[in-house]
């Protein structure tokens, strides 16, 4: 995949607005502020293409990007405590509707912060992917905030808690670039 060709395609507030898949698709899910937009920018090697914010809840729509005939989809983050019930309901409907669409789900990248135990919503999201048979990989984010030994410990703990295969969990950092090549290889594999 030639990421130099990456560009923004469109933003959708409702799943019903999203046109049918025309190419392989990789989507990014995870709680608000976990680093979805940052990891996409790192994959693309383009700093400001996907909007990143220190304020959780920045991405409220489903945003489509395209690189070399592959769609990359930034999904809105879940579990932002300060969000109103109406906003949380809107999120749940948007994500639920999105995954119910008849699409080419080549790979779902499910992001979890390496520093903490997965939240109830992380568990729900990953169980949903497992039960629905969606091809997915877990990216543990912000590894640069931990030492190497802490990373190893958290990887083992989180992997056990989420019950995912060793091959399906990658330690990453959008800051240092750790694990990004591994994730890209996984994306290539899923899309070709
Ligand atoms: P929403 O759009 O609100 O759902 O958030 P998001 O998941 O897209 O997170 P985003 O990429 O906007 O990052 C949130 C914050 O975490 C920003 O301040 C980023 O700079 C920071 N961040 C993201 N990834 C990393 C990382 O690997 N290391 C460090 N140290 N900070 C990171
Ligand atoms: Mg975002």
UniProtKB/TrEMBL annotation:
Q: What is the required cofactor set for this protein?
A: Mg(2+)
Pfam families the UniProt entry points to = MMR_HSR1
InterPro entries assigned:
G_ENGB_dom (IPR030393), GTP-bd (IPR006073), GTP-bd_ribosome_bio_YsxC (IPR019987), P-loop_NTPase (IPR027417), Small_GTP-bd (IPR005225)
On the tree of life, the source organism's domain of life is Bacteria
Record keywords: Cell cycle, Cell division, GTP-binding, Magnesium, Metal-binding, Nucleotide-binding, Septation
Q: Where is the EngB-type G domain?
A: 22-192
| Classification via NCBIfam families | GTPase_YsxC, small_GTP
**Physiological role:** Necessary for normal cell division and for the maintenance of normal septation.
User: PANTHER family per the record?
Assistant: ENGB-TYPE G DOMAIN-CONTAINING PROTEIN (PTHR11649:SF13), MSS1/TRME-RELATED GTP-BINDING PROTEIN (PTHR11649)
Question: What name appears for this protein in its UniProt entry?
Answer: Probable GTP-binding protein EngB
């Amino acid at each position: 995949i030639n990421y130099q060709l990456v560009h923004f395609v469109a933003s959708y507030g409702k799943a019903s607005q999203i046109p049918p898949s025309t190419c392989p698709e990789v989507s990014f899910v995870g709680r608000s502020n976990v680093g979805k937009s940052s990891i996409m920018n790192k994959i693309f090697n383009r700093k400001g293409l996907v909007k990143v914010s220190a304020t959780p809840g920045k991405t409220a729509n489903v945003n489509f990007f395209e690189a070399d005939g592959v769609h990359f989809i930034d999904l809105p983050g879940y579990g932002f405590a300060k969000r109103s019930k109406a906003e949380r309901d809107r999120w749940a409907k948007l994500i639920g509707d999105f995954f119910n669409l008849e699409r080419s789900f080549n790979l779902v990248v499910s992001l979890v912060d390496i520093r903490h135990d997965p939240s109830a919503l992380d568990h729900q999201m990953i169980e949903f992917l497992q039960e629905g048979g969606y091809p997915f990989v877990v990216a543990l984010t912000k590894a640069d905030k931990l030492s190497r030994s802490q990373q190893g410990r958290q990887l083992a703990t989180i992997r056990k808690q989420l019950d995912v295969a060793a091959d399906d969990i990658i330690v990453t950092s959008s800051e240092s670039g750790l694990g990004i090549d591994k994730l890209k290889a996984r994306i290539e594999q899923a899309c070709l």
